[in-house]
């Protein structure tokens, strides 16, 4: 029996760090290739895939401003870093025969399309993978917030937040070995307990727009597909209603 995806349209958030692999900075082509293959597997199920890439493997605005740079300038540098990552992912996807469009929130027409919401939706409907780059075009925001915003704009069913951890824990697993991974949690509790999922702006944007978030480990090959097939991978962040998770 063919496997039925749980979601029709997804936004996958990939941090810059994830593209860096073990080095922790720059771009590891082997890691990018692995992510591209996993995206292709999901796309071949008929799922519409939009990706938001971060830039932390190259530059983070906050670190620049901590070293004395103007914050907005440092943030624009961060947004440009995400475009570099987007092109690397585009290249890897195209090598696997996936049709891709990169859309940037800061216009650079020689490199990519500008972000046009309706056009992005058309691409998705035609089975193209859309990569959203340059964040949302504004300093003082993150690519997590961008992913939440784009998910709302394109009416995605879910936001998949790829991380290095298995999901959301009740305590910081790096400092508390006894920390337990949660299978499910309400947005409000993530905000109240200040759990390390993503920034509060991104979480509240998802909450306000009823977009569930699945936090999962990207380092395990095949996890994106498993999440899309509804397997209980990672942590599901959502509202009260369990029916939301299991519509049948
Ligand atoms: N950024 C921004 N506005 C946005 C998105 C990103 O100014 O809408 C900048 C910000 O400086 C950030 C950097 O781009 O530090 C890289 O993005 P992010 O830190 O979200 O990347 P990730 O942590 O996912 O690799």
From TrEMBL:
Single Gene Ontology BP annotation: UDP biosynthetic process
Name of the top EC class for this enzyme: transferase
Keyword check for Methyltransferase: no
Binding-site list for ATP: 13-16, 56, 60, 163, 169, 172
Main subcellular location of this protein, as a coarse class: cytoplasm
Gene Ontology CC: one annotated term: cytoplasm
Record keywords: Allosteric enzyme, ATP-binding, Cytoplasm, Kinase, Nucleotide-binding, Pyrimidine biosynthesis, Transferase
UniProt-listed Enzyme Commission number(s): 2.7.4.22
Pfam families on file: AA_kinase
Spans annotated as Involved in allosteric activation by GTP: 21-26
Family in the record: Belongs to the UMP kinase family.
Name used for this protein in its record: Uridylate kinase
């Amino acid at each position: 029996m063919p496997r039925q995806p749980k979601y029709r349209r997804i936004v996958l958030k990939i941090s810059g760090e994830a593209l860096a692999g073990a080095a922790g900075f720059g771009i590891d082509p082997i890691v990018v290739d692995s992510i591209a293959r996993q995206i292709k597997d999901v796309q071949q199920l008929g799922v519409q895939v939009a990706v938001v890439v971060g830039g932390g493997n190259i530059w983070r605005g906050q670190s620049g401003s901590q070293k004395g740079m103007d914050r907005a300038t440092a943030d624009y540098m961060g947004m440009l870093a995400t475009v570099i990552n987007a092109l690397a992912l585009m290249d890897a996807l195209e090598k696997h025969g996936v049709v891709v469009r990169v859309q940037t929130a800061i216009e650079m027409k020689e490199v990519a399309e500008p972000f046009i919401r309706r056009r992005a939706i058309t691409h998705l409907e035609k089975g193209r993978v859309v990569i959203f780059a340059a964040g949302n075009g504004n300093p003082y925001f993150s690519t997590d917030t961008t992913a939440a915003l784009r998910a709302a704009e394109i009416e995605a069913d879910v936001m998949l937040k790829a991380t290095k951890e298995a999901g959301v824990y009740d305590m910081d697993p790096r400092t508390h070995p006894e920390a337990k991974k949660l299978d499910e949690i309400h947005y409000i509790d993530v905000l109240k307990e200040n759990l390390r999922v993503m920034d509060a702006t991104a979480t509240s944007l998802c909450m306000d727009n009823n977009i569930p978030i699945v936090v999962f480990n990207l380092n395990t090959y095949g996890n994106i597909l498993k999440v899309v097939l509804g397997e209980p991978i990672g942590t599901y962040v959502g509202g009260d209603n369990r029916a939301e998770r299991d519509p049948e």
